[in-house]
Write a structure and sequence with these properties.
Number of strands: 38
Largest sheet: 11 strands, mixed
Shape: globular
Structural class: alpha/beta
Helix content: 40-55%
Radius of gyration: 43 Å
Distance between the termini: 60 Å
Strand content: 5-15%
Low-confidence stretches: 44-81, 388-416, 664-671, 833-842, 1163-1167, 1290-1328, 1330-1357, 1360-1364, 1384-1490, 1502-1507
Mean pLDDT: 76
Number of helices: 51
């Protein structure tokens, strides 16, 4: 266990003393604002202590908002006494000036002279003249030659500026690794299962042994756990974890105590009592009364420890000058106030202690042991539940609520009848799978249920609903997971009424304790103010309303189903199919005719058809090719005259004559002239080119003139108004024939369309389509009503949850429970007002207050309805008892059997996870250890699954095979992104239900970047630089629109964590911690991302040609599954290899590369509507479904709507989006020939996407077919109600079909700019290729980058806030002076030079034994490159080993040689981190007049040190 515990130093007292020493060398402050700040202890802050009366008044009338954050920037308020110990910032590029220029000839001559004078000293310097200037040599600069005295001031200014530059660079080299190591720990905290510790006080002692060797004890004395927060401005805020308190370093203390013990039993007993008392004393202290920046807060305790642990123990300040320090014998213990911050793996004793506590319960000789039934299957196999069909009372633990034990109720007589199960209430929408889980747990009362949830399938949503359902029944729930990533958003997903009852400590103890205080207060107020009778009555009313709505919804579903079945039968008839074929043909070929005649009845169509038919019949008798009547009028007089020539009846001629006479005023003399006019009018007529000479010829002319007259009348009275108003095309109705195309005739095809139209009207009447359309409209209204009912039921369910929770609390809480809550509330409130007193007067009282607080906490914790804790936190907060009705373990595939003690606290278990995601590994466990563990385990069917390397999820899946529920609806990724995992891992069983909105969508969604990189060691720097470059471009582009919500970013290394460390360091240099915080950047390997998601994810393949690591195991498949399912909107693969470079055909990298390369592997959501319509027509030329969808999409486009296919999210449905917002709606054409199974599947998909916020409308296919105008207006109305406003459009005068076109074409304005940007982008990347696999670009333009390139931006601008504009450091507490760090320059152990020399002499002995419990410089294999900015220092918790001569641990910790080695080796700065290209120009810092000493030196010669 803890014998193998490793440590990694983050920083120590020595680190900050080095920084302050650099500041002391500068004449002026190096930086306008200090890069780090230490804070005073909460108990000694320099503010007046409130009087007793004021404290009492404040306690009685507390500010209800006091526990909330006092700002909106994400920083916790400090007025509650929440301690902050250290605030550490990272220097920005603007803090470090560029190296001073040597362009001045006088400066170059001076440097050349300097090199010549000291040529032997500078033999190893580079050719650059500035290479000779260092912090060591600048103090020995030669005097200025007489020839350059005129430029003396310029040279002096240059040297001053260069010294400031060197100091700032050296300061940065020391400070930046401290920040980087702490930042990396924050990012990888959940992966390595580590905790951060601040070790206060340092003890050192060398004990000579009888064998001539020496035992060295070296380490911190007091340990306090820490939590770190990355603030908005990029600063790291370090706070103590208050609840866990303080503790002694048990191994160091034990080692020191053993050196002072005698062999007598009485002495051993006395020593044990003394140590026990000392441990108890430290444990009772509050971390808030200590402050590393104020050693006076813990020095008295260190002095006491030094005396009690060793009779010769001595305290000595490490910061005191060397001449005042006392040389002590090595066998005497020396304690200093020095401290160290280090990361260590969480001790295994945490869960082992729990396991032993439960084991003790099992060993008790009692009849009933309160152990969950689910645990039996882990030892006896899954068959244990099959044999217990009728369990007896002696072996089965009752599944009654744990509230019966702690929240006492009135005793009621036992009823033999089985009680009716209480209705399950879900405040959040649920799926069938979620309902099944609740049914198994709450109705069937199964001991355990396994929920298998692939990535993004709503596991958090399931847990939130289960919490609500259990709390509704007065039950208690514990939620746990290995890491905090999976639990971080759980509380926010709960209804507001439930959130008040949930305490989440998983991510931050500070936040969790604040939530605990709020929960206790609100819980006590709710219980005291609630009326069980009123809440019961309210619950009954809400249940009745929900039941009524549920019945109404079922009735609507029945009606919709009946209507669909009727339509399905109708459409299969020949008449319906004929009707659909004719109607679609009319709409597709003559849309203007179909649109105009929607309201026409059969009689209207028949009359029009008869008119056309009469004209066409007469038209057939005309010989247009033989006769020419060009220019001839078609008046009655002309026709009568031609009729007379053709030998027509006299009555016709007389009638024509009477008409002619009536029209002429003067009858007499004009009759002759009128006749002459008629002769001239008909003289232009010809037959076969000749003037008509017989009746037959005139008969041909007469037929044509009569046809033209009738056609002109029809055109004037009917057709011309329709062509003007309804845009009927003239070319489709008429055609010109005859010689010179002089005769206009009616097209026969026009009459054919009216024949079709008449048949359509007749079939519609026969099928009673008007009634069918009314029924379809009613179904649309019913479906809308059903959506409203679903929303109303959800709101009522939330109210019911609130009422039932209050009802159960008021009924179940006993007076003892209420008293415990009130007591804790009072104690926690008092603690806030007691910390302002002086520790010298309040030490005993504070100790008593803390003990009271812990006792009140232990009583109160039993009555909190819901806790959210990580596995390692459970034993810190909860006793080893069965306190909960349900324990939920999330991401169970990451946990192993060590999670079992936490689960033993619940009667029922819900195991949530996925066996195809990252699981524990046995790679670092020896076979000997596994064999030893196997031998210790009792024989069991599950024996192998209990060994290391097996996940608890896999163990549970074997133990409870019949209690397994699989989730299949995917809500995280865009459909094309999840296709890899769906195909490779889940056999296509996942159902994608998320379609990014217009503002969420990033085009393209899959990007394949090929670079010419090379893997060196474990990293590929080319891929690293490319990813940093892409992220920088994206962040720079996002900064242009500060109002937009920042997109979260993730970077995953597919091979090892060293690549992730490299990217993390370079990205910090490139964009700074502020932007990383703003975009929630997470960088790591796949295990670091399990349970997390990001909007954009970059994948680094790391491998290069010839350096391809084979990845074929199940472990690798799990990691690829996790890595390729984290991105919500965009996933970018950066690789240096092709498929041909991978030798192993089973390597998982092959499938990943092919997924990005092969367009057929991704189901595209093409924005090209014309292409989509053409493909739909090609796939189903005569199908009702495809033609109805095309009609609907064309109507939407004609009105200017943005239309997208929903793909697999809702098959064959259309997504209509609103420009500039996230509003959208979904449309689907139904009753168009689909089968019953297809309709049921479509309805199920609709209900699923409605649960995640979609607004859906199903259109009846025949209604759209018969009256697409009115039906479409209903669609427009629905879209407006859904927030999708109709775009403003105008109609083109040249558009004969009445199609609409947009007023503004935004794409035209930016097309030229986009082309220019793309050209610049292609020129910028000549050594790489980008392949776009899938794109949602509405214009069909495939871009080569996930974001458009933007002009270069100064890094200081990109970093956002400069360090001088940061949040004021004083807001986190009272900043203390750092005098304790300035007194000396000793290392962490605080030894003087004399002691070091003495130690060197003593180390020359034959050898000695070394014992250490502090993080010292024994190194383990580094997890990153040698060029990384840090080297991890790892030691065993207490290591006993032999070392000889200069190999002692003491030598590594002391001495100037060791210090220099540590400074140059362990704190070496990465070369890439100091690339000068990242730093812009800035004004140099002004120097004080105190530089006059250097001026005098340069004028007179010599060294200031000599003076």
């Amino acid at each position: 266990g803890d014998e193998q515990q490793s440590f990694e130093v983050i920083f120590s007292t020595w680190s900050f003393r080095q920084l302050l020493a650099m500041e002391a060398d500068s004449a002026a402050p190096l930086f306008a604002a200090p890069p780090f700040s230490f804070y005073a202890a909460a108990s000694v802050r320099s503010r007046p202590s409130p009087s007793a009366r004021k404290r009492g008044w404040s306690a009685a009338f507390r500010n209800p908002l006091a526990s909330r954050s006092d700002d909106n920037n994400g920083f916790a308020s400090n007025n509650e006494g929440k301690a902050c110990w250290l605030r550490l910032t990272r220097l920005t590029p603007s803090d470090i000036p560029e190296r001073p220029s040597i362009s001045n000839p006088a400066i170059r001559r001076y440097l050349h002279q300097w090199r010549e004078v000291n040529s032997e000293e500078f033999t190893d310097c580079g050719p650059n003249p500035c290479d000779i200037i260092t912090l060591e040599t600048i103090g020995r600069a030669p005097k200025i030659s007489p020839a350059d005295l005129a430029h003396a001031q310029t040279i002096k200014e240059f040297l001053r500026s260069f010294k400031t530059y060197l100091l700032k660079r050296a300061y940065q080299k020391q400070l930046e690794p401290l920040y980087n190591q702490l930042f990396e720990w924050v990012q990888t905290e959940n992966v390595h299962n580590e905790e951060l510790v601040w070790g206060l006080g340092h003890a050192r002692m060398c004990i000579p042994n009888e064998d001539g060797k020496t035992t060295v004890i070296n380490g911190p004395l007091i340990e306090i756990l820490l939590e770190v927060e990355l603030s908005r401005d990029g600063a790291l805020i370090i706070r103590p974890r208050e609840h866990t308190g303080c503790s002694l370093n048990a191994r160091v203390v034990a080692g020191l105590a053993s050196s002072n013990s005698d062999d007598t039993s009485s002495s051993a007993s006395s020593q044990h009592q003394r140590l026990t008392k000392l441990h108890r004393t430290v444990a009772e202290l509050e971390p808030l009364q200590f402050a590393p920046g104020q050693p006076s807060t813990y020095i008295p305790l260190l002095k006491r420890i030094a005396v009690e642990l060793s009779s010769g123990g001595t305290y000595q300040p490490s910061s005191s000058p060397k001449h005042t320090q006392h040389a002590l014998p090595h066998y005497q213990m020396l304690v200093t106030e020095a401290w160290v911050v280090y990361a260590r793996s969480k001790p295994t004793t945490v869960w082992a202690r729990d396991a032993l506590a439960f084991a003790d319960q099992l060993l008790q000789k009692e009849e009933q042991v309160d152990i969950p039934r689910a645990a039996l299957a882990l030892t006896h196999g899954p068959g244990v539940f099959d044999d217990a069909a009728e369990p007896d009372d002696e072996t089965v633990v009752s599944s009654a609520s744990i509230l019966d034990m702690f929240w006492k109720k009135k005793e009621e007589p036992v009823v033999e009848e089985t009680p009716k199960p209480e209705p399950i209430v879900f405040p959040l929408p649920t799926s069938d799978s979620q309902d099944r889980i609740a049914e198994l747990l709450l109705c069937n009362e199964l001991p355990a249920v396994v929920c298998e949830g692939p990535p993004g399938t709503g596991k958090t949503h399931v847990i939130a609903n289960m919490i609500s359902s259990y709390l509704c029944q007065g039950k208690r729930v514990l939620i746990t997971s290995k890491g905090s990533s999976a639990l971080s958003v759980l509380r926010s997903r709960l209804p507001a009424c439930i959130q008040d009852l949930v305490v989440d400590v998983s991510a931050s103890e500070l936040t969790g304790m604040r939530q605990l205080q709020q929960t206790v207060e609100r819980l006590a107020n709710r219980v005291s103010c609630a009326s069980a009778e009123l809440e019961t009555e309210k619950s009954e009313i809400l249940l009745r309303n929900i039941k009524a709505l549920d019945d109404e919804r079922d009735e609507i579903d029945r009606k919709l189903g009946d209507h669909t079945n009727h339509k399905r039968k109708m459409i299969r008839t020949g008449d319906s199919q004929r009707l659909a074929e004719l109607a679609f043909d009319l709409i597709e070929t003559v849309p203007w005719l179909a649109r105009t005649t929607i309201s026409w009845g059969i009689d209207d169509v028949s009359r029009m058809r008869n008119k056309l038919s009469a004209i066409l019949d007469a038209q057939k008798l005309c010989e247009f090719e033989r006769v020419s009547t060009a220019g001839c009028l078609t008046t009655d007089a002309v026709i009568s005259y031609v009729a007379s020539k053709a030998g027509q009846r006299l009555s016709m001629i007389k009638q024509a004559s009477r008409d002619l006479i009536a029209a002429v005023p003067l009858v007499g003399s004009l009759v002759a002239s009128g006749s002459h006019v008629l002769q001239e009018e008909v003289s232009v007529a010809s037959v076969d080119g000749n003037t008509p000479d017989d009746r037959n010829d005139w008969k041909l002319v007469l037929d044509i003139l009569q046809h033209q007259k009738n056609l002109e009348k029809l055109n004037r009275e009917v057709l011309e108004p329709l062509m003007q108003q309804q845009k009927w095309p003239m070319d489709y109705i008429f055609e010109n024939v005859g010689n010179l195309q002089q005769h206009r005739i009616l097209r026969a095809s026009f009459l054919e369309k009216f024949d079709q139209l008449l048949e359509v009207k007749q079939l519609a009447e026969k099928l009673d389509m008007s009634q069918e359309m009314k029924a379809a409209a009613e179904c649309i209204d019913l479906d809308a009503r059903r959506s409203l009912i679903a929303v109303r039921m959800q709101n009522l369910a939330a109210d019911l949850v609130d009422a039932k929770v209050i009802m159960n609390l008021s009924q179940s809480f006993s007076a003892e429970a209420q008293s415990a809550l009130i007591r804790f509330s009072q104690i926690s409130a008092k603690a806030k007002f007691s910390r302002s007193s002086q520790p010298s007067k309040m030490t005993t009282r504070q100790r008593r207050h803390r003990q009271e607080y812990l006792e009140a906490f232990d009583r109160c914790v039993r009555y909190i309805p819901c806790w959210i804790l990580t596995n390692s936190q459970i034993s810190d907060y909860l006793p080893a008892e069965m306190l909960f009705d349900l324990v939920v373990i999330d991401e169970a595939s990451q946990s192993d059997v060590t999670a079992l003690p936490g689960l033993l606290r619940g009667r029922q278990w819900l195991i949530v996870g996925d066996g195809k995601q990252v699981s524990p590994t046995e790679s670092f466990i020896s076979e000997e250890s596994i064999d030893s563990l196997r031998a210790a385990l009792p024989k069991s069917p599950m024996e192998d699954s209990l060994l290391p390397g097996q996940s608890f999820f896999d163990l549970s899946a074997q133990a409870y095979p019949k209690f397994r529920v699989v989730l299949s609806e995917h809500f995280r990724c865009a459909p094309e992104i999840i296709m890899y995992s769906n195909k490779e891992c889940y056999n296509g069983q996942l159902i994608p239900l998320r379609l990014p909105t217009a503002m969420e969508r990033i085009s393209p969604s899959l990007v394949n970047v090929r670079v010419e990189g090379r893997k060196v060691g474990k990293v590929n720097e080319t891929e690293c630089d490319e990813i940093v470059k892409l992220i920088r471009n994206f962040v720079t582009a996002a900064a242009v629109n500060p109002l937009a919500t920042p997109r979260s970013i993730g970077v995953i290394s597919l091979v090892g964590s060293d690549q992730a460390s490299l990217i993390r360091g370079r990205l910090l240099d490139s964009i700074g911690p502020q932007k990383m915080k703003e975009h929630d950047v997470l960088i790591g390997d796949p295990p670091a991302f399990q349970g997390a998601e990001r909007d954009i994810v970059f994948l680094s393949m790391v491998c290069s040609p010839g350096q391809v690591v084979s990845q074929t195991k199940q472990m690798h498949a799990q990691r690829f599954n996790v890595a390729l399912s984290r991105a919500r909107d965009q996933m970018v693969l950066v690789r240096s290899i092709d498929v041909s470079h991978i030798p192993n055909g089973e390597d998982l990298k092959l499938a990943a590369i092919e997924f990005f390369e092969d367009a057929s592997a991704v189901e595209k959501e093409d924005g090209d509507s014309e292409k989509r319509i053409a493909e739909r027509q090609e796939a189903n030329t005569h199908g009702f479904q495809a033609r109805a969808e095309n009609l609907l999409e064309q109507l939407l486009q004609a009105r200017g709507y943005a239309v997208r296919s929903m793909g697999v999210v809702w098959k064959d449905a259309l997504c209509i989006e609103h420009f500039g917002s996230n509003e959208r709606a979904a449309l689907k054409v139904e009753n168009s020939g689909e089968s019953e199974q297809e309709w049921q599947r479509s309805v199920t998909q609709q209900r699923s996407i409605e649960r995640v916020g979609w607004k859906c409308m199903r259109l009846d296919g025949f209604s759209l077919l018969m009256d697409h105008i009115e039906t479409f207006e209903k669609v427009v109305s629905f879209l407006a109600q859904a927030g999708v406003k109709e775009p403003e459009v105008t109609f083109s005068s040249s558009d004969q079909d009445g199609e609409a076109e947009d007023d503004v074409d935004e794409d035209e304005d930016t097309s030229d700019q986009k082309k220019k940007e793309e050209a610049d982008l292609n020129n910028d990347r000549a050594d790489e290729s980008v392949v776009v696999i899938s794109s949602d670009d509405e214009n069909g333009n495939k871009r080569a980058r996930p974001t458009p390139p933007v002009p270069d931006q100064a890094p200081s601008d990109l970093w956002g806030l400069s360090r001088n504009d940061d949040i004021d450091a004083s807001r986190f507490g009272e900043v203390v002076k750092l005098d304790f760090l300035r007194g000396g320059n000793e290392a962490f152990d605080g030894h003087s030079g004399d002691e070091e020399s003495d130690q060197e002499d003593s180390d020359q002995e034959d050898g000695h034994r070394s014992v250490s419990s502090a993080p010292v410089s024994r190194s383990k294999q580094s997890r990153s490159l040698e060029s990384e900015s840090k080297r991890r220092q790892v030691v065993k918790g207490v290591v006993t080993g032999e070392s000889h001569g200069d190999q002692s641990i003491d030598d590594e910790e002391t001495g100037d040689v060791a210090k220099k080695e540590k400074e140059t080796k362990n704190r070496r700065l990465d070369s890439y981190s100091r690339d000068g290209r990242w730093y812009p120009d800035r004004v140099r810092d002004r120097q004080d007049d105190t530089d006059s000493e250097m001026d005098d030196h340069l004028d007179q010669g010599g060294s200031p040190d000599d003076e």
